[in-house]
């Protein structure tokens, strides 16, 4: 286990730097938009533009990686998103910001596909849940670190965008000096929706619903807290406690999923998310401490459904197909994440800001019901729970089925 972690250190370091930059940018853009007087609808469309870009990025990633390789593709994507981050403070225009967020989404569609396929290939079936859990811990640790820069610089100024771009470029360093071999190039340059649906029927629908809920939360939660009149400091604290929660749950839940049917863990986590979201919808600005407590609890559960589903799907595929599988699932996630912020923003405008959490509770309830239905129809894939740790430097992709 330790040798596997050490093998993936350069990838994990690159992820950390990427997410410090992107985590700051993800909160900064809707916060700055709210400060500048953008409407709920404008902020929702800006959030959706990110995931429209991710759709294009996930569609193109297998082709790009197959043509130029994992490390060159990673470097190109990181450079693009850093340049985009520097464009936001130039003009406060909703159309420009939509274009820049779309460009960020395009780049991160490729970056996520590359790093997630790298991890799932190296981890193998019996460590996949834990390694994806560790990946998520690093992901949200980076995001929590990024939020703290909101306390140092004024969001009305340009400095925070420069900080974001600097961390995004720093992600190039560990990948550039790493000697770790990347996964094999994908055998195909296109996405594989029908094969995933055939071999892992919960995959595409579950990931799509996760996109609806997560896209809505990350795009609109900062604006929701801002509109409660609690100030930028409360926005930063709330997002930080959510992200700290996000760093708490993935590894232990991933470890559990390596031992039992991952779908059962997905159901339990989704039900807990429903209960927490309904509690958040009822709190509002009445008690800030409860807002933080339930924000932390929400952070424990909302990020783990995606990696648990990815691990479940990859259990049925060979390691050589990791890039294509990851990109296809990301594509489904992005479709949901484009739709989610638009619907949630419309509901917030019509019914009030608390509709954000009611909307997400309904989505997670539907997700849990769907997975239960599929569990009754199909058994889990076989496991080899006694597989030993891989030697350092040796790939551990699952054998072809």
Overview features:
75% helix, 401 residues, Growth Hormone, Chain: A, mainly alpha, 17 helices
- Kindly report how far apart the N and C termini lie: 24 Å
The main sheet comes to: none
Which fold does the CATH topology refer to? Answer: Growth Hormone, Chain: A
**From the coordinates shown, what is the CATH architecture?**
Up-down Bundle
Unreliable stretches (pLDDT < 50, length at least 5) are: 384-401
CATH class reads Mainly Alpha
Mean pLDDT: 81
Tell me the helix content.
over 70%
Radius of gyration: 20 Å
Count every helix, treating DSSP H or I runs of 4 or more residues as helices: 17
Give the topology string: H per helix, E per strand: HHHHHHHHHHHHHHHHH
Q: Quick one: overall form?
A: globular
Your description of this structure?
It is built from 17 helices and no strands. With 401 residues, it is mainly α. The longest helix is centred in the N-terminal third of the chain and has 30 residues, at 94-123. The protein starts with a helix and ends in a 24-residue tail after the last helix.
Write a short abstract of this structure.
This protein has 17 helices and no strands.
